[in-house]
Amino acid sequence: MRQSFIAKNPSVLVFLSTLALFTLLVTVFAEGPGAGLIPTSFVKTLGKTLCLCLIAIAMDLIWGYTGILSLGHFAFFGLGGYMIGMWLMYERTRLIVTEALAQGDIPPTEAEVVDGIGSQIFGVVGSSEFPMVWMFADSLVLQLMLVVLVPGILAAIFGWLAFRSRVTGVYLSILTQAMTLALALYLFQNDSGLRGNNGLSGLQNLPGVEAPQAEVSMWFFWASALALGLGYLLAAWVVSGKFGSVIRGIRDNEARVRFLGYPVETFKLAVFTLTACIAAIAGALYYPQAGIINPAEMAPVASIYLAVWVAIGGRGRLYGAVIGAAFVSLVSTWFTGGQAPDIPLGFYTIKWVDWWQVILGLSFVLVTLFAPKGIGGLFDLLQRKDRT
User: Fold this and answer.
1) Residue 306: how many CA atoms within 13 Å on its side-chain side?
2) What single string gives the DSSP state of each residue in 58-118?
3) Angle at 370 between CA 366 and CA 376, to 5 degrees
């Protein structure tokens, strides 16, 4: 008798149940619909953490299971944020401009409204005309499609060029990092069409929604939890079947998999494109909760941090990637948010804001040397003890 997918992968049910319980507890104690014990700012932090867990799953698929250390997935994360941010900023500005122009005796024309929107959005970079990249910014449906299509097409083109040339190892990692750097440098320019260094701001305000931020933050938190659950389910399904066996074979011995007749480059391209789309969805949910996105968010160091999260959590384990991203994100918030007290030593005062990155880097080195399975490896030890 064939076992069901859940029966063969009990960790999926455990993860989804844990996520559902966590979501319920936050809802009950949140400031908006709940008892008010969890402030809105921390609800946003938790929602953003769930989004980082989702991109960590994407990173684990491409690195932990396929063996490709991509240092460019935060570029796809940022592109997803830009795509949804364009609609949020356009629609919010349209409402403001329409209301302002309606104060006159003569109703404004459509051209006047568009000119007003352009002046409001692009005046900061000395322009008032809409660049071509904003041609669909007035349509939520089209921009939601672009959240997946733009990063997916970029990943497909880049992956096809790289994999067909059989670039592997550290050279491929350098190429992905170069792609991220090139994209970030392009977006820093004022003529990129995305407001250069200023980026897109005010994304936390949903156009036409009069609900307080406490409620809006809960909506995004629920959406982030749902996306993480579906993303985990999809990733677990991908790695559990024959496809998962092939990509693990590519990770362990690519030459042997190619000798067996499998189209290695096709499998790599499929995983690279899929994970780029997952990362973009995570970014589209993250930046409305952050409220702003600019090219600095797509700096290559962000993708390096992503690899550190997965390594600390335990690569090759989907739950390990989630644990690593959640742990580092929340601890980072505690250290860099001024909540960790400084330690005066007389001759020197340890300020955690300055030392957090050193601690993170040291943690990565220690995990690599002494605990290569990461935090997720602790579950292996517990399982062995249960069997004995």
Assistant:
1) 32
2) HHIIIIIIT----S-HHHHHHHHHHHHHHHHHHHHHHHHHHHHHTTSSSPPPHHHHHHHHH
3) 90
Q: pLDDT value at position 385?
A: 57
For residue 21, count CB atoms less than 10 angstroms from its CB and return exposed for 0-12, middle for 13-18, buried for 19 or more.
Answer: exposed
The count of residues in the chain is: 388
Q: What residues contact 358, with CB distance under 8 A and at least 6 apart?
A: none
Longest dimension (CA), the chain: 83
Question: Mean of the pLDDT values across residues 182-188?
Answer: 91
Mean pLDDT for the stretch of residues 34-58:
92
Considering the entire predicted model, what is its pTM?
0.92
pLDDT tens, position by position, 5-34: 776 777 889 999 999 999 999 999 988 777
What contacts 266, CB < 8 A, 6 or more positions away? Answer: none
Question: Does an H or E element contain 343, and which?
Answer: strand 343-344
245: which residues sit within 8 A by CB, 6+ positions away? none
Select from 324, 256, 238, 257 the least CA-distant residue to 62: 238
- Mean pLDDT for the chain? 88
Across 259-308, the runs of DSSP E, i.e. the strands, are 292-293
User: How much is the pLDDT for 140?
Assistant: 94
